[in-house]
Write a structure and sequence with these properties.
Blueprint lengths: L1 H7 L15 E2 L2 E2 L1 E5 L3 E5 L21 H10 L15 H4 L5 E9 L6 H9 L7 E7 L5 H10 L6 E6 L5 H16 L8 E7 L3 E3 L3 H10 L4 E10 L7 H20 L12 E5 H11 L12 H11 L3 E12 L5 H22 L6 H30 L6 H17 L5 H8 L2 H23 L7
Parallel strand pairs: 5-6, 5-8, 6-7, 10-12
Antiparallel strand pairs: 1-2, 3-4, 8-11, 9-12, 10-11
Length: about 450
């Protein structure tokens, strides 16, 4: 028992383990030994350990079977891949945690929406323990408004940081905030910060977002992050064209939120992502920064999602963790936004190659191009022919036609009957499909033939 307490007391700097229980083996407590290279190994008295394969001292016995697995749940052996670390359950960090949830909000020229974003954090059913606002490369009054929020006595504890010269876009701002946080907690996130919420300054979170995200992430110790289900804000249009454009974006967001894979999401949402502190620390231990700082990194949320998966962490999305985000009011702004997302995704996929974590995204992009050619080519041609000939067509075409009406409508049933009606009419979706195909093709072409421009 003294050996356990001496180890747990921090004999090795940077490693702190709280041992809540002492397993008994043959009437004697376990011995815990630290091997810096291979992590924690748990022994009793006996022979060679079947998990860490290390040589015991003379007279030692080694745990095996169920007892050994339980012990290794607290002190695991070598990482199974290049930077995965042993898991530490929430109740094992105990009183050493300074912050349960820290919110990190990067903001660039967001004077219009920063108050709304920060207000949604203050209005949470479980507010964050600390809010860090990183104002970067801003030329408006974002910093002033954020500081007004921080100075309000009713606001949660808030720190406003200013980063005037940031060449690394959003990734640089997020890493700057994480570095500040690590200095504030004296080093590692694992022992001091349980969760980190990253959200955009133009996003408004549902009042129970943090509460629900905590419940989801605590349900599985292998979960490294929970992504928001993004929905577009409504009633912001000023003319019929904007009503159509914003309405199709609302349908697009709602359809995506309804169909995302629960345990294999394509990407954590930049609008709202809830990370386990230990998961971010494992990425820091591997490469020194959570978000890849490079001016070519246009989709820092997707690149970080892949890194977490490669680290052995799961990521998921939850429909009840809702983030309301701004929509693009003009066609030009919409194409610029989606072309940036698409081009950044293609760049990341090209650098990663075909792996078990990227194949689904690559296949989805290829199928999206094939589907666009099918819909805009053969499908549109057949629709025109059907309209001209009074819909005298083969049974196969009629079956496909019914499918095109029913299936898209059912996919957005959670958005209400208006969205279902728009999808069933086909024409609005076909027009939007033309725009979608344009930015998708443009993204792929630009990824191969042009260089990434500076911050826009």
């Amino acid at each position: 028992m003294p050996e356990l307490l001496r180890f747990a007391g921090g004999e090795y700097p940077g490693v702190r383990v709280r041992l809540r229980r002492v397993f008994e083996w043959g009437g004697s407590p376990l011995r815990v030994r630290l091997f810096v290279r291979y992590g924690l190994r748990v022994h009793g008295n006996g022979t060679r350990c079947e998990f860490c394969k290390c040589s015991p001292k003379r007279g030692e016995k080694v745990l095996s079977g169920t007892t050994a697995r339980r012990a290794h749940a607290v002190a695991s052996d070598a990482p199974r891949n290049r930077h995965r670390r042993g898991r530490i359950a929430l109740d094992e960090v105990g009183s050493s945690v300074l912050y349960d949830t820290v919110a990190l909000v990067p903001a660039r020229n967001e004077e219009v929406g920063v108050f709304t974003a920060l207000g949604s954090l203050a209005g949470q059913s479980r507010p964050p323990d600390l809010i860090i606002v990183v104002v970067n490369n801003s030329t408006d009054r974002t910093q002033m408004f954020a500081q007004q929020f921080a100075d309000d006595p009713s606001s949660p504890p808030t720190v406003v940081l200013n980063l005037d010269n940031n060449p690394h876009k959003k990734a640089g701002a997020l890493n700057y905030g994480i570095r500040w946080l690590r200095e504030a907690v004296d080093g590692r996130l694992t022992e001091s910060v349980r969760h980190v919420l990253v959200m955009d300054a133009d996003t408004e979170l549902h009042s129970k977002f943090i509460e629900r995200a905590r419940n989801v992430i605590s349900s599985d110790p292998e979960l490294g992050g929970v992504s928001a289900a993004c929905l577009g804000r409504t009633d912001l249009w000023q003319n019929p064209w904007q009503r159509y454009l914003l309405g199709m974006q609302i349908i697009e967001y709602g359809r995506a939120a309804n169909s995302r894979y629960r345990t294999d999401v394509h990407t954590m949402s930049g609008a709202g992502s809830f990370y386990r502190g230990e998961a971010l620390q494992s990425v820091l231990d591997w490469r020194g920064e959570v978000f890849w700082e490079d001016h070519r990194n246009l989709v820092e949320d997707y690149e970080t999602t892949l890194t977490l998966k490669e680290s052995g962490w799961k990521v998921t999305a939850n429909q009840l963790c809702i983030a309301y985000t701004d929509l693009m009011p003009t066609l030009r702004e919409l194409i610029q936004q989606r072309e940036r997302w698409g081009r950044g995704t293609v760049d990341t996929l090209r650098s990663r190659g075909w792996t078990k974590f990227t194949w689904h995204s690559i296949a989805s992009m290829i199928m999206g191009l094939v589907g666009a050619v099918y819909i805009l080519g053969w499908g549109t041609t057949q629709l025109v022919k059907a309209a001209a000939s009074g819909f005298v067509q083969s049974p196969i075409f009629l079956a496909l036609f019914v499918f095109w009406i029913v299936y898209p409508a059912l996919r957005v049933r959670n958005l209400g009957w208006k969205a279902m009606l728009v999808e069933a009419l086909l024409i609005p979706e076909l027009v939007y499909a033309v725009v979608r195909t344009y930015w998708l093709v443009l993204s792929v072409v630009k990824s191969y033939v042009t260089r990434v421009s500076a911050w826009k």
